[in-house]
Design brief:
Blueprint lengths: L2 H30 L8 E3 L6 E3 L7 E7 L8 H12 L4 E7 L11 H12 L18 H10 L9 E4 L5 E5 L8 H12 L3
Parallel strand pairs: 3-4
Antiparallel strand pairs: 1-2, 3-5, 5-6
């Protein structure tokens, strides 16, 4: 083989290696762009198709543990209003149905989805029924409890995550979705850059 042929083979190998490196680096950067609190996949309530929460990176995320038969269940209405009002500005509300507190959630995902849609016209994203406290807490709540130092004490605890993917604040069940301070915290978070 002459020098020119050897050079062409080396050049082709070099270009392939550079292409593979660029592909690997792009995938690695994409994986690292998802904040740890959102780097989880959970089944969607309506059809149990896995949803990666990384899709909400760069948004303000409000995570709420919900229940269909609780004294606070009417908060669905206010949470949906918040979602409608601030969705275009970058707010996402995610409901996590749970029977951890008094068994106040319906028994299956289909019934929960129908209840939320038919009773409160809930359109914000929701995941399947899950545990939100103790050793059986789903990975999202386990991470939120570690970050905030606060485990939910009842249904409709609210955890606010900023655009940068970091924990902002936790709110008790007693904080209604139209609470002035709560709404101001959301508005402040929406104004910040990721």
């Amino acid at each position: 083989m002459n020098f020119y042929g050897l050079f062409k083979r080396f050049k082709a190998f070099h270009l392939i290696a550079l292409g593979l490196c660029a592909l690997f680096c792009a995938q690695h950067a994409q994986a690292n762009s998802c904040p740890a609190l959102l780097n989880h996949s959970l089944p969607r309530l309506q059809d149990e198709v896995p949803q990666n929460l990384c899709q909400y990176a760069g948004k303000v995320v409000l995570i709420v543990n919900t229940a269909s038969k609780c004294g606070f269940t009417s908060q669905y209405e206010g949470l949906e209003r918040l979602y409608d009002r601030y969705r275009q500005a970058g707010l996402v509300v995610i409901g996590f149905p749970s029977g951890d507190f008094g068994g106040q959630e319906l028994s299956n995902n289909k019934d929960i989805a129908e209840f939320c849609t038919n009773t409160f016209n809930v359109r914000f994203p929701m995941v399947v029924k899950t545990s939100v406290r103790g050793s059986t807490a789903n990975p999202v709540f386990a991470a939120l409890i570690r970050e905030s130092g606060t485990s939910p004490k009842w249904n409709f605890y609210k955890y606010l995550i900023g655009r940068d993917g970091r924990f902002v604040k936790v709110y008790s069940s007693m904080t209604s979705p139209d609470d002035r301070g709560f709404v101001q915290d959301i508005e402040r978070s929406l104004k910040q850059n990721p």
